[in-house]
Amino acid sequence: MSDRSHEPEQLLESLLSRHEGQRDPQAEPAAPQSDHEDLDMLIDELEVVVGQAKRVPFGHRLMVGEAQMLEIVDRLRSAVPAEVRQARRILDEQQRIIDEAHEQARRMLHERGLMAELDVERERTIAGAEHEAERIRSDADAYVRGVLNDLADRLTKIQASVHNGLEALQSPHE
Predict the structure, then answer these.
(1) Among 80, 73, 4, residue whose Cα is nearest residue 37
(2) Quick check: helix, strand or coil at residue 31?
(3) How far is CA 165 from the centre of its chain?
């Protein structure tokens, strides 16, 4: 015989052998309640209860223990807020990290901007110093040229005087 032919008998036996609200002996025992019960674990438990439920003959319906299902639903209700609180804490932490990263990036860009300004100012100062050094060199060269020209003129005059003096001394005695 097929399993289908035994379904009405199994249904009858299950109804007679169980009192309402009593757990199925094959069902997993309920996990102890806690504030931090895992949603996935509760959903798995619900799936086990549905998987072990008896089928109603000639239909697609299941018979499950009302008390067991209500207990799981209550535990789901209490677990959801804990999961939501945890998700909010995670999102808050994520936002704090993102804000901190934005602030650090802003600081780095500001510092990079300051460094760029310092680089520009340094280049400007160096260029100014080089220009000033070139002007001083040019002025020094002009001064030295003037001094040397003046010295050459004096030497020329002195040489002429010496030459004239030598001529004067040689002419009358010769």
Answers:
(1) 80
(2) coil
(3) 95
Residue 10 CB contacts under 8 Å (≥ 6 apart), including other chains:
54
Residue type at 111 in one-letter notation: E
- Cα–Cα distance, 123 to 68 (Å, whole number): 81
Strand partners, 62: 55
Q: What residues does 63 pair with on adjacent strands?
A: 54
| 3-class secondary structure, 18 | coil
Q: Residue-wise pLDDT tens for the chain (174 aa)? A: 445 555 555 555 555 544 344 444 444 444 444 445 677 888 888 888 888 888 888 878 888 888 888 888 888 888 788 778 888 899 999 999 999 998 998 888 888 888 889 899 999 999 999 999 999 999 999 999 999 999 999 999 999 999 998 888 886 555
